[in-house]
Amino acid sequence: SQKIEQNSEALNIQEGKTATLTCNYTNYSPAYLQWYRQDPGRGPVFLLLIRENEKEKRKERLKVTFDTTLKQSLFHITASQPADSATYLCALNSGYSTLTFGKGTMLLVSP
Amino acid sequence: DGGITQSPKYLFRKEGQNVTLSCEQNLNHDAMYWYRQDPGQGLRLIYYSQIVNDFQKGDIAEGYSVSREKKESFPLTVTSAQKNPTAFYLCASRAPLIEAKNIQYFGAGTRLSVL
Fold first, then answer.
1. Which helix (H) or strand (E) holds B98?
2. pLDDT tops 60 at residue A74
3. Any chain A CB within 8 A of the CB of B5?
4. H or E element, residue B99
5. Do A77 and A62 contact (CB within 8 A), yes or no?
6. Which long-range contacts (CB under 8 A, 24 or more apart) does B47-54 make?
7. Which residue of B has its CA nearest to A40?
8. Which chain B residues contact residue A44 at CB under 8 A?
9. I need a labelling partner for A109 at 20 to 30 A (CA). Which of A16, A73, A78, B31 fits?
């Protein structure tokens, strides 16, 4: 089965800096990879999806890369703001219609 | 408002009791999912349903049951057989695969505690 590793330690950065979060996976390369944001006590919210044949995807201040050779995705938030503080989850397709989620990495952006 | 509605927000279970968590969606999605989230853990799939009157076990189905009698509704029952039910439960739905590549939309969650 697919295993996903996200840094379990919180990432602390200063406002205005770029945050970079890592998602590593084992076994087979998924057809696509997704990133979600989760605020405390709330459900995850979809942010970005990147396909296996795409190297990079951008949406406003967000950028995702996908390296199927390294079996890794990087999630970047540029010009970070305190409002970006949340837990970010990586998810891969694990079957025809199911996802496997990582444990998430907490991001803390201080003013 | 379109979306996923979970109720109640907080639920307490007495020992030996079955409790049912509600999940309703008005997104007209065929597929629905139930996940369990424990502190510091990822989401673990309990059950999922791709169509009315059909559902499949996920990774941790023991001690849980579901039904899917209507497209809009996918209730989860936590039975007395689930010995460690304290967790945050999340319901999700998914747009058709051809459109949205398994992007899932989540409710606000139900936090279940044992008295």
1. helix B97-100
2. yes
3. no
4. helix B97-100
5. yes
6. B47/B76, B48/A97, B48/A98, B49/B74, B50/A97
7. B108
8. 43, 90, 104, 106
9. A73
**What residues contact A71, with CB distance under 8 A and at least 6 apart?**
A24, A25, A26, A29
Q: How far apart are CA A2 and CA A39, in angstroms?
A: 25
CA separation for the pair A81, A107 (Å, rounded): 11
Tokens of A12: 């602390």
Tell me the per-residue pLDDT of A36-68, one tens digit each, with 9 for 90 and over: 999 999 999 999 999 888 989 999 999 999 998
Indicate whether B99 pLDDT > 70.
no
Which stretches of chain A sit within 8 Å of chain B by CB?
A: 4, 8, 31-32, 34, 41-46, 49, 51, 89, 93, 96-99, 101-104
How is residue B94 written in tokens?
A: 């998914």
Beta bridge partners of A105: A88
Taking an 8 Å cut-off on Cβ atoms, the answer to whether A98 and B107 are in contact is no
Residue pair B56/B45 in contact by the 8 Å Cβ criterion: no
* Cβ-defined contact of B102 to A42 (cutoff 8 Å): no
- How much is the pLDDT for B115? 82
* Token duo for residue B35: 């996940």
Question: What is chain B's length?
Answer: 115
Residues B67-90: b if buried by 16+ CB within 10 A, e if exposed: ebeebbebbbebeeebeebebbbb
CA distance B109 to B106: 8
